[in-house]
Amino acid sequence: MGEAITVSALNLYIKQMMDGDTVLSSVLVRGEISNYKVYPSGHHYFSLKDAEGNIRCVMFRREAVGLRFRPEQGMKVIAEGRVTVFPRDGQYQLYCNRMIPDGIGDLHLAFEQCKAKLEREGLFDPRHKKPLPAYPEKIALVTSPAGAAVRDMIRILGARYPLCQVLVVPVRVQGAEAPSEIAGAIDAINRNRAADLIITGRGGGSLEDLWAFNEELVARAIHRSEIPVISAVGHEPDVTIADYVADLRAATPSNAAELAVPDSEDLRRRLRHLETRMAAGLTRDLREGRRVLDRAKASPWLRAPLPVIQESRQLLDYRQDQLVHVVEKLLLRERTRLGKQAAALDALSPLKVLGRGYAIVRKAEGEIVLSTRQVDVEEALTVRLNEGELICRVERKEP
Amino acid sequence: MAEKKMTFEASIRRLEEIVGTLERGDRSLEDALALFEEGTKLMKQCSTLLDKAEQKVLKVTQQADGTLKESEFYPPEGE
C-alpha cells in the first residue's frame, strides 16, 4: 500500500481534474426535474434524471432570477452549466446557469397515456365501484411496513374501531419492484379471501416516489379485486391512476383509515338511541295492554253479570213477539192476495157463461161443435146446459 | 348460545330490526316482551364488544404456494 492522503486532498484532486475538463466546464444536459426546492437564500436545488440516472443540480440566485418559467417536479428541461465537485460532500453536481423547458416530462406523458387507455377500457367507470363494508372485520393494509403511513393507519383504525382486525401486507411502495409487489399482494388477499377491505397506499412524495401507483399493473389489480379497495396515496392533491380505479379515494393514509371504519363513539351513541326507541316501543305496548285490561275489567259482564242476562232475556222476549207479529201480518197479506186471484180465475170460467143461457154442443167423442159441417143428419150430440145435459138427434142442417 | 357468535354487524342489524318492529307495535305483547329481551341482550353484547375490543394487528406474508402466513406485526417506531 502506498502513501495515504486525506479525504479533502482527494476531493480537491478530483475537483481539479474535473475543472480542467473542457466538456464538463460547459455542458447541456437533457433531463427531468425532481425534488425541486427553492431555499430562502434564493438558490434553487434539484435533480435532473432520466430512466437510468440522476444528477444533483444547483442554480444560484443570480442565475435563477433569469428563469423564464417555473421549474416543477417532473418537468423535462435542458440545463446548461458546468459540472464540478462540492468538496465538503464529495458530491459532484451541475452548477446550472441556464435552463429551458424541453417539452413535457416523460412521466407526465406516461401518466396521461396510461390514464387515457384505462379510461377508454372503462376501468374508472362508476358502475365498477363496490360499496365498502359498513362494519369491516378484517382490513388489509397493502403498504410499506415501515414509515408513518402504516403507523398512522393502525393508530386511527384502533382508535375508531378496534373490533376490526388489521392485516399488514408488507410491500415496497417505490422502485422497480413496487408495482408487481402491490399487485401481487392485492391478488393474494383476494385469492385467500383474507380481508373484507383493502387499503393500499403510501405517504406523500414526489411524482417518482408515487409512481408505482400510476402503473397499469397496480391499476389492473385494483380493478380485478373483488374485495373493495381504498387508495390512499400521498398528501398532495395529485391524483394517481390507482385513485381513479379504486372503489374509494382517500386523500391520505390517515384519511383512508377514517373512511374505512365507523367510529366507536358514534356507534355507542347509536346504541343508546336504539335503546331509547326500543324502550319507548315496549312502554307503549304495555300501556296499550294495560288499557285493554282496564276496559275489560270495567265491563258489566265481569262486574255484575245477572242484570245483563236479565236484560238480554227481556230483549229476546220482545224480539220473539216482534217476530210472531210480523209472520202473522205476512200470512194475512198472502191470504188476501190468494182470494183476489181466485175471483179473477172464477170470472174466466166457461161454466159462468152457461149461467147466462149459452150451451156447449159436443159430438159423442167429445169434440166441440162449432159448424154444421162437423155433424151429419141423424147424429147424436150432447148439449151441456148450465144445469145438466141433453142428448139430441140432428133432424136437418141449415147452412 | 348461538347469539354469542354473532358479529357486531349482525347484532346491530338485528337490533335495528327489533327496534323497528317494536316501534310499529303490531305484535302481541308476548312477542314484544320477547323481542325486548332479545334486544336488551344484543345491546349489551354490542356495547361489550365495543368496550372490550382490543385492536389485533398481524403481518401477512405470501408463501411460495400462494397461501398467506400470519405473524406478529411490530409497528415502526415513530415520533
Number of helices of chain A: 13
Largest sheet of chain B: 2 strands, antiparallel
Strand percentage of chain A: 15-25%
Mean pLDDT across residues of chain B: 84
Number of individual domains of chain B: 1
Strand content of chain B: 5-15%
> Radius of gyration of chain B, Cα only, in angstroms?
20 Å
Give the helix tally of chain B. 2
Low-confidence stretches of chain B: none
Describe this structure in words.
The complex is a heterodimer of chains A (399) and B (79). Chain A has 399 residues and is of the alpha/beta class. Chain A folds into five domains: 7-103, Nucleic acid-binding proteins (OB fold (Dihydrolipoamide Acetyltransferase, E2P), Beta Barrel), CATH 2.40.50; 109-262, Rossmann fold, CATH 3.40.50.10550; 265-298; 303-344; 353-393, no CATH class. Chain A contains 13 helices and 13 strands. Chain A has a five-stranded mixed β-barrel with strand order 1-2-3-5-4. Chain A has a five-stranded parallel beta sheet with strand order 7-6-8-9-10, with helices on both faces. In chain A, helix 5 (147-160) packs parallel to helix 9 (253-260) and helix 6 (178-191) runs parallel beside helix 7 (216-224). The termini of chain A are far apart. The model of chain A has no long low-confidence stretch (mean pLDDT 89). Chain B is an alpha+beta fold and 79 residues long. Chain B has one domain (2-72). Chain B has helices at 8-24, 29-52, and strands at residues 57-62, 68-72. A two-stranded antiparallel ribbon of chain B has the order 1-2. The radius of gyration of chain B is 20 Å and the shape is elongated. In chain B, 22% of the residues are buried.
Give a short overview.
Chain A is α/β, with parallel strands linked by helices and 399 residues long. Chain A has helices spanning 7-19, 22-25, 61-64, 106-120, 147-160, 178-191, 216-224, 241-245, 253-260, 264-298, 300-303, 305-348, 350-354, and strands spanning 27-38, 44-49, 54-59, 76-86, 91-101, 138-143, 165-170, 197-202, 229-233, 248-250, 360-362, 380-384, 389-393. Chains A and B meet through helix 5, strand 7, helix 6 and helix 10 of A and helix 1, helix 2 and strand 1 of B.
